[in-house]
């Protein structure tokens, strides 16, 4: 490779890296519902659109919706009670609660913009207050804009990786750093959503102690071969229980 060509590649690579950092700084904004400063590169309407577009596919992956209108209405009523009695009602998001037919996978998750799912496998293990804890936690993910934040972070690291790979053969190194950052932030998202879930339960008249029982149910379901916390995107249930107790003491008074 000629010397001039090598210099041009370095210059272009540095320019791309600089652009990534400038864009990241310009996308900083304070979440009006949590007060946390985040890197976000999309609007609430875009979050809603992504969630609505992705929801059918996610439902299909879990066997579709559970074919019992009575149970679906029960989930809807608990979800609406949480929204109507919390700051969630002031957000622009459109909250929809879906009971999935999957009776093997114990899981619940939220898409950007308010699409919230719980599998029948998890639902069947919960009482009403525990269901409220799970749904409140997922509402917390929506209000915390965690998916939007992860998308922005992913975009940043991809751009940074491209710039590094143009200037030198370091793309894989930078990509690895990005993955570690996303893993760490993911644990923080879970703890923030646990705290918000406690708040929403209290405001809706549910006993927040039941969220601790949810953590025990998840730990029991995972069994003795549970993935260690440092290898998982979720904090260990025991650590989550400690933080939930702190949140209950903080917001119950």
From TrEMBL:
Cofactor: Zn(2+)
Keyword Hydrolase: yes
Pfam family, one: Peptidase_M48
Superkingdom of the organism of origin: Bacteria
GO annotation terms (biological process): proteolysis involved in protein catabolic process
MF terms (GO), sorted A to Z: metal ion binding; metalloendopeptidase activity
Keywords annotated in UniProt: Hydrolase, Metal-binding, Metalloprotease, Protease, Zinc
Family as reported in the entry's similarity comment: Belongs to the peptidase M48 family.
PANTHER family registered for this protein in UniProt: METALLOENDOPEPTIDASE OMA1, METALLOENDOPEPTIDASE OMA1, MITOCHONDRIAL
Protein name, per record: Peptidase family M48
Organism: Robiginitalea myxolifaciens
The organism's taxonomic lineage, starting at the top: Bacteria, Pseudomonadati, Bacteroidota, Flavobacteriia, Flavobacteriales
